Amino acid sequence: MTHRDVAPVTPEAERAGTTPARAPLDVLRSHLDTHLEATARVWFHRALAEAAAHPGTHGPISVWELRLAEAGRRCGSRYADAARVLILHAARADPESLARVYFQGTAEERRAVLHALPHLVSGPEALPLVEDALRTHDTRLLAAAVGPYAARHLDAHAWRHAVLKCLFTGVPVAEVAGLEQRARADAELARMLGDYAAERTSAGRPVPGDLRRVQILADPTAPPSTDPGAAAPDRHRTDLSGPGSSHRRPARPHGKES
């Protein structure tokens, strides 16, 4: 696989935002220490200690993998993503371990792995996980897949299609890390957006409001949308406590919720 034409993304741009992928790990830890109830906080600290003491793979399943599965029940869905990311970091999970958790886990565990990638993997080794998530129609997985790791490592062709996939499925483009840097003056992306807008208009369907935002970045000279049914921009803001509440609840093709 080649990865040409990847636009540089500044660390500041990567980390802007509050999802577990973008927030510094010490901020995630502090957030959980502040907001978890006492019993959940004790469990969380024990899970981190176990992961740090027994990193890597031990037998058919490691203790920290069991804790990943428990996180939703122990911490609640609001805080499970951040807890899982911190457990994965404490376990020093390598790309092989991350792939095993991703492909064997529930949709929630998959999402946590995607959020953990920029904290754990410096190179493109984990791109197959991002590419798999981008093939789904689970909007929460899609939102996690277009985080800082994708901004750094997806090639131009795949990244453009990821942006279009967000528009197709209603994932707010605010979820796309590095959007302003990578979309700026991208003539091919502007063409793709124009084609998509024309298809929607011809079919009598509204053009997503987010499309215009990306279109302006890709081609500042593009004429304003004349579609009277254009949807208003989604003001969704992500939250490190869990998946955004404004996302519609998708099907879970990869397993039951934990």
From TrEMBL:
Superkingdom classification of source: Bacteria
Region (Disordered), start-end ranges: 1-21, 217-258
Composition-biased stretches (Basic residues): 246-258
InterPro entries named among the record's database cross-references: EboA_dom
Protein name per Swiss-Prot or TrEMBL: Sugar phosphate isomerase
Species of provenance: Streptomyces rishiriensis
